[in-house]
Amino acid sequence: MSKLDKESKISLLKTMLTIRKFEEKVSENFAAGQIPGFIHLSIGQEAVSAGACFNLRKEDYISTTHRGHGQCIAKGVEIRPLMAEIFGKSTGYCKGRGGSMHIASLDYGMLGANGIVAGGIPMAVGAAFSAKYRKTDQVVASFFGDGATGEGAFYESMNIASILKLPIIFVCENNKWAEFSPQQVHMDIENVAQRAKAFGNVAAETIDGNDVELVVDAMERAIERARSGNGPTLLECITTRFHGHYEGDPQKYRPKEDIEGVRSKDPIVRYKTKLKEEGVLDDAGAEALEKEVEGIIEDALQFAKESPEPDSKELLNDVYVN
Ligand SMILES: Cc1ncc(C[n+]2csc(CCOP(=O)(O)OP(=O)(O)O)c2C)c(N)n1
């Protein structure tokens, strides 16, 4: 089990709270018509991002999906330009061109969110190859959903990573849904981790992804394996999507009990309770932490709202086709 000290535990809770409060604000503002484009939230899945990125270094790489705000935050990117990007403003990480689904911040090793399902996986393998070739000791974590494991890009990536023993961790956030299809409709096996067997040199684990310390532990093993040259791991984190596939999704396809039951699996409530039982945090400490996080999110929101729209004269800047 994890040997986390008090400071680390509070830091994990703070990361999860930051993701939750950030996304709740995004949800609110999207519903109010303040945010352009499509929004997919990871509310309920925060323990995967927070736990998986906890032991990554700033120079390590991640790639993520259309549901990637949590991983950006957990990797340490700044909250103001992240919020501004979602609002499509010129002060955003990609100057408002990327929006929610295409955030990248190379200074933090964040290679990109990706609207193409499984699209980030081969890019992560390329980064892992580069790290191995350059002998930089960097590792890469590539995040994707259970649905992405039906894509050819996933298999090609696993195969090449296995053959070349690349320093990569394939992190599957299995929330049991791919858009509007439950897992049993698109997979004839119980666990995504079983898919690793086809590749020889890929370690695999399935864990409760709503237990943040379990995620930290499993990632520690996977990072150690990757950094010591022993190759990739497929880490399947079972988790829960509280909201619909996209914001505004009425979820008519989803059984009522599934929607109503999700709150009982809240990874934040669970961790807060655990930390209180362990004496790491008391009520006043928890409240102060929440207030601090709310302040950070409120500041980012104001920054995003007050930031200018991109100038149409700059439309063709940073576009690399002719
Ligand atoms: C190549 C490709 N096929 C289909 C889609 C449409 N699409 C968007 S999200 C999604 C489901 C993804 O499910 P999963 O990988 O489990 O991620 P989750 O949404 O559960 O986080 C699909 C099929 C797409 N964006 N890209």
Write the layout of secondary structure elements.
Layout: H1 6-31, H2 46-53, E1 61-63, H3 69-75, H4 79-86, H5 120-134, E2 140-145, H6 152-163, E3 168-174, E4 177-178, E5 181-182, H7 183-186, E6 203-208, H8 212-227, E7 233-238, H9 256-261, H10 267-277, H11 283-306
Parallel strand pairs: 1-2, 2-3, 3-7, 6-7
Antiparallel strand pairs: 4-5
Helix pairs in contact: 1-2, 1-3, 1-10, 1-11, 2-3, 2-8, 4-11, 5-6
The protein binds thiamine diphosphate (TPP).
Residues 65-67, 115-117, 144-148, 175, 177-179, 245 line the site of thiamine diphosphate (TPP).
Determine the fraction of residues in helical runs and give it as a percent range: 40-55%
Tell me which ligands are bound. thiamine diphosphate
Major beta sheet summary: 5 strands, parallel
Strand order in the sheet with the most strands: 1-2-3-7-6
Distance between the termini: 54 Å
Structural class: alpha/beta
- Count of runs of 4 or more consecutive helical residues: 11
Low-pLDDT stretches: none
Shape: globular
Q: H/E order of the elements?
A: HHEHHHEHEEEHEHEHHH
Average pLDDT, all residues = 96
Please provide the count of β strands: 7
Give the amount of beta strand, in percent.
5-15%
Radius of gyration: 19 Å
